[in-house]
Design brief:
By secondary structure, this protein is an alpha/beta fold. 45% of the residues lie in helices and 14% in strands. It has a single domain, classed as Rossmann fold. It is globular, with a radius of gyration of 20 Å.
Length: 326
Amino acid sequence: MREWWVHVGLICIPLVAVYLHIPPPQLSPALQKWHSTGKVFHFRGWKIFYRDSLGALGSSDVVILLHGFPTSSYDWSKIWDPLTQRFHRVIALDFLGFGFSDKPRPHKYSIFEQASVVEGLVAHLGLSNQRVNLVSHDYGDTVALELLYRSDQNRTSHLTLNSLCLSNGGLFPETNHPRLLQTLLKDSSFLAPILMRLTNYMIFQKGIGEVFGPYTQPSDAEFWDMWTGLRYNDGNLVLDSILQYINQRLKHRERWVGTLTSTYVPLHMIYGPLDPVNPHPQFIRLYQKLVQRSTVTILDEHISHYPQLEDPTGFLNAYFNFIHSF
């Protein structure tokens, strides 16, 4: 009997080892095209992927897009071309640890560093003296608030903000409900390394699917592109470090919510109300109570946490109405 278990163990150990080191998936043609039309700049020795498209003639307006967790700049692909018809330049980056950018480990990822990455890109592109419009989502919302704070306080910011449009980000810790896996990864130093290696496409698809509406689920190809972006450069192995942003939001709430409530930069919120992470009506009621200078667009009731992907037309209409209002 003992010898039987030994044989099973000898078979299982290499199988588990192979499973835990499955190579990342190949890029789809759509993702390959996104990658091939991008560029790289260096930030403190790390490579940061970005896209920079020239658009509308006769306009000098610049828009910078800040993506969410755990995805990438590809989140903006459905609204990219319409934005280039309105803005002179449309720019998006993959934050450090995301998408096609470097994913150093071990590394202490922080919102402050990501804001500096954005400032570094702005300086690299020669836009330090240009007023820029920010559009952000989820994790990118908090990066945007740090940029807003630096801009308002004139603290060596390379960014002069013309406007800020937020969407479905956990701005208020008291109304934010991270998913169970996120909580386990950010708070369990023992479980996190195991969970990161055990997380596979099926687990990822289920988790991401839960934050999309039932009628706006990604296609199989779109799910796979999200997973491919995460696995690129072993991004699944830095999730626990990146997820410390949830704790940072709580620690620095006064700084980031304070600048949101006091700024005179034009603000807008585009909100998918079916969002389980920032649920309706608690989140939007608190936002409207605290951020009274901001305008708000609440999309259709079936739109959830990824409004730019679930309802790109509604998202664009809301954003263009905001931009044309000042």
